[in-house]
Amino acid sequence: IMLNGEIDGIEAAERIRAQFDIPIMYLTAYSDMALIDRIKKTEPIGYIVKPFDDKELRINLEIAFYKLEMESRLKESENKFREVVEGIGDLVTTLDGKGELLYINQLAERIFGIKADKCLGMSIFQFIHPDDKQSIVERFANSANKQLQHISIENRLVNFTTGEVHHMLWTIN
Question: 82 or 14: which carries more pLDDT confidence?
C-alpha cells in the first residue's frame, strides 16, 4: 500500500484494474478502516494482513482463483443468454413489480425507439398507447396481485421517437 513515488498502492491497484482488468490482492501491514474503505473501491479479490504464514497465503490464493473462475463462468453464461435473447425474433423485456424496465433486447429498442441504457428504469406504461393504457395498467396490477402464472395482454405500443404504433401481444410468466 505504501509505495515510493507519487501514488500509493491503492491508486496503483485502481489503475491496474482499470487498464488491464487484473485482479488485485493486497498483502500489507495496514488495516485501519479509512484505508479499508478506499481499498474496497478497487474490488480486491483478497486482503491479507502481515504478519502472515504460507498456509494463510495459499488458502487466500486458492479462494481467489476459485472466485475468479466462477465469475468468468458467470460472465460466459450471461453472454450466452444475452446472445440467445438478442437472436430471437421476439420483443423481450424484464419488468419489476411496478412495471419498470429492467432489461430490453435489441428488438425492443427498435420498437420503443430508445436505447436500453436510456430506458432502463422507465415505466413500460410510458410506451403503451394512450387509448390502451388504463386497461393495461389494471391488467398488470391484477396479474401482480394475483400472482398469476401466465396471462396474455394485447395492446399497442408507441415508439418513443417516431410515434409509430406497433400491435403487441404480451405474455406474462
Answer: 14
